[in-house]
Design brief:
The complex is a heterodimer of chains A (424) and B (167). The mean pLDDT of chain A is 97. Chain A contains 15 helices and 18 strands. In chain A, α6 packs parallel to α8 (209-218) and α11 (306-316) runs parallel beside α14. The relative contact order of chain A is 0.14. Chain A has 424 residues and is α/β, with parallel strands linked by helices. The longest helix of chain A has 17 residues, at 75-91. In chain A, the strands form five sheets. Chain A has a five-stranded parallel β-sheet. Chain A has helices at residues 8-17, 42-50, 75-91, 104-110, 142-151, 176-187, 202-205, 209-218, 233-240, 300-303, 306-316, 334-342, 345-351, 402-411, 418-422; strands spanning 27-31, 34-38, 62-65, 95-97, 119-122, 136-139, 153-157, 161-167, 196-200, 226-228, 260-265, 272-274, 282-284, 295-299, 326-330, 355-356, 377-380, 396-399. In chain B, β3, α5 and β4 (104-106) form a beta-alpha-beta unit. Chain B contains eight helices and seven strands. By secondary structure, chain B is an alpha/beta fold. The chains are: A alpha/beta (424), B alpha/beta (167). Chains A and B meet through α2, α3 and α5 of A and α4, α5 and α8 of B.
Amino acid sequence: MVNQNQHAVEKILARAAGKPTVSVGEIVECRVDLAEVNDLYLQTIRSFYDMGGKQVYDPDRITFILDHYAPAATIQQAENQKQMRQFCLDQGIKLLFDIGSGVCHQVMVDEGLVYPGMVLVATDSHTTTHGAFGAFGTGVGATDLAVIMRTGKLWFRVPEVVRIELSGTIPRGVYAKDIILFIIGNLGADYAIYKVVEFCGPVLKGLSVSERMVLCNMTTEMGAKASYIQPDETTFEFLRQKVNRDYQVFESDPNYHYSAELSYDVSQIEPQLSAPHSVDNVAPISRFEGLSLDQAYLGSCTGGRTEDLGVAARILEGKKVHAQTRFVVVPASRNVYLESLKLGYIDTLVRAGATLVTPGCAACLGTHGGILASGEVCISSTNRNFPGRMGHSGAKIYLASPAAVAASALEGKIVNPAGYLEMN
Amino acid sequence: MKETVKGRAFVFGHNLDTDQIYPGRYLELTDAEDVGQHVMESADPEFVQKFKAGDIIVAGRNFGCGSSREQAPYALKVKQVGAILAESFARIFYRNAINLGLPVLICPDISQQVTGGDVLTVDFASGQGVNARTGRMFQTEPLSEYAIKIIESGGIAPLIKKEYGSG
């Protein structure tokens, strides 16, 4: 008997596994539509050869994106990237996006490589981002990725799905980042381990693709395996400009049984802040107002898109960032950089005193481009505030929305961004 | 995989992330010896001096959360960790550890039962363990069949090589 109670994610996995249906807890081997490797993972190539690999299974379903060391700051980083470029050349992998292209998750979207119904696996935990397009996106380590390069497939345990409904009206100064921080603070960093987190409800309709990506991206910080938003007109409109291929949109059956169903009224949410040293250590930003800042950081696959640079430019137009605060801006991709140049955002931000860094991951994971010294305090639009994440283990990282980062850069201390948006 | 392991416990709390297990600034290193030198550096800077081959990591919930970096379990493997016992594991860390052939065992309330320096013995076949200081027994959850197959093959790379050959 055909199971009539499947979730869209189960239908995606079933299609990829070549099975009519799948059920929660089952281990399935899925064909991976796209596998992405970034430049932290030279081990992927080594593991591929350890597995007896000579020729990758399908060079057109593999992409290498050099984003974490962009451009290389040390000889070792340069050596690792050199070997990756050579591997792509040797293996006929055409989808190599070299330094300056941007953070892998934004690059894949910009390049039209992400579409509904696909199985996308990358050597990066924030691959959950692609649930924003109705794709099954999940992160793995180097050796799992090598299995895909070698065999074209990977095993998964079919996950439970948690449904989060968002209702109400988003208040001024509140963004998707505040909503997801609030939820993570409420549920905890391990709430969704092994599970898929689906977002739905009336608020979604008014959310841009960029804001949807923020919600899905940050589900990693509650342990999620993947995230999901049912594609709608907003998704299709966006994809029409990017994706040049056919794809199948799956929908969940009405009787699907979620492992949990939660709802949040966003009207009640204030701008939020995640305080050191855990992402689920969340409080309203008002509790930290006035805290002096050494650095404000705007960037990453969470908070470095064109809309993010746009809201920062709106707040900083004609003004100067505080003399004691460094303001580091890292566009998420070349495309974001070019769009922001065209719209005048880069001009505004640089005139306001921003230090502009090459598109990529930069200081979000503490490799280069705005590293923190001991005891320094930073507000950041990124996704993690673990000890040592952006430099010295004694530095303090406060996560917030891009608007909060820009307004706080202006004042040299943490402020609620709502008032700064009203002034314009 | 050894059938039993006996080692001193190093105890960590909940949500110990991979940035603390292996800081991002060392991700460019590729030599095993170099990688091993930085294990747990952000959680305990003296860990690498104190830890001996066969010692056991004990942790609370969500061990290895955060980045997908395989260097985190790899660094522990280089230092020849005897076993990692946690109340739960973050999923990417768990997969990475199994793929590298590391024994990662889920054990309810273990972080409450063990103090740093306690000597633990764990039998992998039965999942049973004992704390020599308290005399208290504990039971770990069984690994899935597929996980056991990977660990017994010495990791997923040798397993895939065996199943697919060269090509």
